[in-house]
Amino acid sequence: MVFKVTMPRLGITMTKGKVTNWLKKEGDDIRKGDPLFELETEKVQTVARALDSGVLHTIVAPAGAVVPVGGLVAVLANPGEKIAEDIVTVTSQPEAEEKKPLNVESIVETPRIREKISPLARRLAEKYGIDAAKVKGTGPEGRIVKEDILREALKKPSEDMAESVNVAAEKEMSFSRKVMVEKLIQSHLKAVHVTVAAPVDMTQTIALRERLSPEIEKTTGTKPSYTGIIVKAVSFALKEYPLLNSRLEGDTIKMLADINIGVAVELEDSLVVPVVRNADQKSIAQISLYIDEKIEKARKGELSLDEVSGGTFTISNLGMFDVEIFTPIINPPESALLGVGKAIPKPWVIDNQIAVRPIAIFSLSFDHRIFPMVYSVTRGVTGGAAVLVPASVYVAADPTISPISSIAMATVHFPFLDCINAGLCLDTIYMQH
Asked: Considering the domain 3-77 in this protein, what is its CATH number?
């Protein structure tokens, strides 16, 4: 009996995968559950296992091949069994295969193409020398729109630079990085990015971590991280301002019930975002321990797709890289992302007196299609940022308050939350975990 080995779907957004290495060779006996080949997707590197038993008759997709989900990768058969030629069909080519350059000397549009392209897209195609007949439209009924032409323009190398600059070396981008780049380009083309920033006095956040560290380290073996504290604070903000925990689907803004916060982790040649699911229901200790574990797995390339999927909001903390301020790119299909900079000692006015405080710049990038400017700016910077404010938590000065109950008395620089109610909820969650 013949069994087809196909590219598995590891997530609802996965459309293709890259075969990076075969663990078996043709002629090997395969048992159900045996590891067959290593594969790479946009988010993870993992191992595909056999769903059936038999002899590995033919490897259709060699290492380096990019195969669509459901595409044929290999064929298993019984020992000595003959296989019809039409079953073994090459479905993909190695990713590194050189593609022929497009002829962009002139644009020739047929009446059909002219009907399928918007006037603005046509003008941009002429400006950038793009052959509209070879562009796949993403508008209604396949109509070519502005974003399609801009996406193609970004792919074109600069002819002037190619002629005037000598290339010292070349490095092929990894499959995961290429898919990530495509995703971020789409984010920039579709979402209307706006970034607002505000300085945050981290003095009491640092004090909070120092007060909680002995107890959390005793029970978990690790100290709470600043990122863990920020994730917890943000989870409350997302409940207070549900638009930040939403996504735009067509003309409908969908506010999400789950609060799943992704934490961006930079790797040598890629970027992954482990997701803290139901962050509002976890303690600071749990969140910090979870993030540490996922960062370690990310560096080893051992994250599962489930661990990097389902995010509703993302935090990118570049403070450890000495970055003070940056403009984050929204992680689609989310609607906002918080960037955290390094806390640096700076002059800070307190009660008309100048003091030196550790100040961090928090940058909130959001999709202007979802957030009116008055909402994001007045509430996001001057009125109490839905994300920036909770991250600047400071503990009440009462020395009789224990480290745990001190969270219950947490307050913020801007009064957009009922600090007692929010704190009691946090205290309860911490005690339960």
From this structure: 2.40.50.100
